[in-house]
Structures are given as C-alpha cells and as structure tokens.
Design goal:
Length: 168
C-alpha cells in the first residue's frame, strides 16, 4: 500500500494505518524537531506531542497527499510553542570556554533568535530541514515567489545583524 492510500485509511480511522504512517515519518519528523529544539530530549517531547495531536485530529486532514506536510506543520507549531515556554525560564548555568567554532555557532543561533518567529521558521525550513522553496510554499500556504522574497529579506537582515559585531 502506498503512502497516499495509507493516509486515506488513517484518516478514515484505521488505527494500524495511523501507526504505520507515524512510524514511516518518524525519522524525518525527528529531524525537524531537533533542528528547532537543538537537543534530543526536547525533540522527543515535541514528537510525543505531535503524535498526540495527530491521533486526536487526523480526521480533520482534507487532502491525504499532504499528510506529511500536515505532520511537519504540527511538529513546527509544537516546537515554536515549546520555545516560547522555554523563554520564560531563566538559565543560570555558567558555560565553560568553548572552541571558536562552537562559539560561532552559538553566536549565529543567538542572531537567528533575534529574528521574528516567521523569519526564524523560514531559516529552519530552508537551511536546517533543507526544504525547497516550493515545499516551503506548500507548507505555509503562500506563493513560491513570496517564499523567495521573504527569504531574501531574511538573509539580508541576518547579514546586517552579523555585520554588527557578529560572526563574519
């Protein structure tokens, strides 16, 4: 049975098909969650929440061909929600001195976190998830040209932020 047929069965309530689809997409969903959360524990928490949301709302999927896209959207929304909650927690651990490369990665991550959430999401989808512009357009339900222009503006803004004493 192909993925689309499996998705149709899952949407109709077939529990075996639902579990099979979740298993099929588990690795790619984990990569998305990890790219947002930056650690295994939080990525697994996001996957657990995605599984719950999926099983609870699978009957709402209208187009079986976009089932994987629907799951990616759930993962992204879950990760963004978790990141908002984490911002409220103040971390007081002192970091030991890091090698230059790690320091640059942390600095880059800090600069990305200064962007608006929509631009952060775009960077994660494009460069951490390696999605094509057309896939991002489908995922966000916007024209591909809009993705290109937003990406251009986001990269310009990143270059500007990095030029102000950031990683060069």
């Amino acid at each position: 049975m192909d993925e689309i047929e499996l998705a149709k069965q899952a949407i109709k309530g077939n529990k075996a098909a639902q579990l099979r689809l979740l298993e099929l997409y588990r690795d790619s969903m984990y990569r998305v969650a990890y790219s947002y959360m930056q650690n295994e524990h939080d990525a697994n928490d996001a996957l657990q929440e995605m599984t719950y949301q999926c099983l609870k709302n699978i009957h709402k999927v209208q187009t079986p061909e976009y089932f994987k896209t629907w799951l990616v959207r759930i993962v992204i929304n879950t990760c963004l929600m978790m990141k908002r909650q984490q911002k409220r927690i103040v971390v007081t651990d002192n970091l030991e001195e890091q090698p230059q490369q790690m320091a640059e990665l942390f600095e880059l991550n800090d600069v990305i976190s200064k962007l608006p959430v929509e631009q952060q999401e775009l960077i994660h989808l494009k460069y951490f998830k390696d999605l094509k512009n057309s896939d991002i357009a489908t995922l966000q339900k916007i024209p591909e040209g809009t993705v290109k222009s937003r990406l251009h503006k986001t990269l310009k803004k990143l270059r500007h932020l990095l030029g102000e004493g950031g990683v060069s």
